[in-house]
Design a protein that fits this description.
The protein contains 6 helices and 2 strands, in the order ββαααααα. The radius of gyration is 21 Å and the shape is elongated. Helix content is 73%, strand content 4%.
């Protein structure tokens, strides 16, 4: 498949990933970079799928962040409520940044999300497992698993986006 390109003002073709025109040396304006991104997305199914995986993962991370922010506000001013709200804020920032740097942000979100869940099980196993005696506890567990699957898919999509953008995989 042909590489994605747009014409420079000098008439030469500028390929995706270039920061300047190889013919005239002129730096690419933002409009040309956006046009390259749009052409790549329109011409490559792999690119669209990978970008959608990253979007779904960042959206799911954003939902988790909002739930942590809401839980922190409901718990109130004690240390547990404040730390929950801070975690929600960090996850929200990660969700917003995930489209620019999907792999590191989503890996950190996975670590924070699963780490807090695991830490609560280690610190108070009785309370952790008592949650699963109800339907809500099982729903919470399956929600976490679904989130983890989406986030891992987002990391895989981010890796593919990186390969396509670097030209390692011709899209």
């Amino acid at each position: 498949m042909a590489r994605t390109s747009v014409p420079c003002a000098c008439g030469a073709e500028v390929f995706y990933g270039a920061s300047s025109c190889t013919s005239c040396g002129e730096a690419l304006p933002r409009e040309l970079k956006l046009a390259l991104e749009e052409r790549l997305e329109a011409s490559s199914e792999e690119y669209r799928v990978a970008k959608a995986q990253v979007f779904r993962a960042s959206f799911a991370t954003g939902i988790l962040a909002v739930s942590y922010l809401g839980a922190g506000a409901l718990v109130g001013g004690d240390l547990g409520g404040a730390s929950t709200a801070v975690l929600g804020g960090v996850l929200l920032v990660l969700a917003l940044v995930a489209s620019r740097a999907p792999v590191p942000t989503l890996v950190l979100a996975i670590f924070l999300g699963t780490g807090t869940y695991t830490l609560s099980a280690v610190l108070d196993p009785a309370a952790f497992f008592a949650r699963f005696a109800s339907f809500g506890g099982f729903a919470s567990l399956f929600g976490r698993l679904a989130l983890l699957i989406l986030q891992v898919g987002g990391v895989r999509g981010g890796v593919m986006l990186g390969k396509i953008r670097k030209g390692e995989v011709v899209a």
